[in-house]
Amino acid sequence: METIEESVFARKRWVPEKMRAFGFRPVGDGYVLERSFLDGDFKAILSVTEKGAVTGRVIDAISQDDYYQLRQKNATGAYVNTVRAGYEQLLEDVAAACCQDVLFASDQANRLTQCILERFQVEPDFPWEKEARYQAYGVFRHASNRKWFALIMRVKCAVLDKDGNPALVDVINLKIPPEHGEALLQLPGVYPAYHMNHKTWISVVLDDTQTDEAIMAWIEGSYRLTE
Q: Which domain of life, per UniProt (predicted)?
């Protein structure tokens, strides 16, 4: 399940100069911020790794214990909702002060988006951006017929590997000739398409398992097949 921190910072990139100005201090290869909220009743401790991954703790100022109710889905009382809302607002303030917006969570997805713009003069649209679960689903369409030739989504690894892994990853769905499917699915990071026809579409994980050049070649093929 996506954490509160992952939800807020999924489409953000940290800017070290802004982080230091806001109060983050360098620790090892990352940064740490300690900040009180709700009139000092709670303290948040945010840790950001060198690669931008964020984890957080919320400490009860009186007991000095972690406030675990924050992350329990069945904890829905007025008090825990107040704490949760206060923490989420703090994270939003941190994001506004210390980050820049990006279209997608993964570096490779953003690099490929730029490549698609340069090659086809197409930018993604986000038809489901009002729905939290699907807001980062970006569709690339032909300017002439509005058909999709690529779709970038953020999904759980479990929907690809069927192994129950809840970690999130960006994938790109691309159309392929049916006769190429068997060979492509032998490659690392390539799967039967999530939520699309398995015979004519594939999902490629955007974690640099496959190079930008290889994926761009498949994108160009998908573009031609959907003209």
A: Bacteria
Whether the Cβ atoms of residue 219 and residue 174 lie closer than 8 Å to each other? yes
Closest alpha carbon to 192 in 223, 94, 200, 100? 200
Calpha distance 183→186 (Å, rounded): 5
Residue 154 CB neighbour total at 10 angstroms: 23
| Residue 48 one-letter amino acid | V
Which among 54, 74, 101 is the end of a domain?
101
Give the type of residue at 61: A
> How many structural domains compose the chain?
2
- Look up the domain containing 85 and give its range: 4-101
pTM of the model: 0.77
Q: Is 176 found in the same domain as 204?
A: yes
The CATH number of whichever domain residue 177 belongs to comes to 3.90.1150.30
State the number of CA atoms in the 13 A half-sphere of 177 facing the CB: 6
- Residue 56: other Cβ atoms inside 10 A: 21
Q: Give dist(CA 175, CA 185) in Å, integer.
A: 13
- Tokens read off for 4: 């509160």
Question: What pLDDT is recorded for position 41?
Answer: 97
Say if strands 54-60 and 99-101 run parallel, antiparallel, or are unpaired: unpaired
Euclidean distance between CA atoms 42 and 28, whole angstroms: 25
pLDDT grade, residue 140 (50/70/90)? Answer: very high
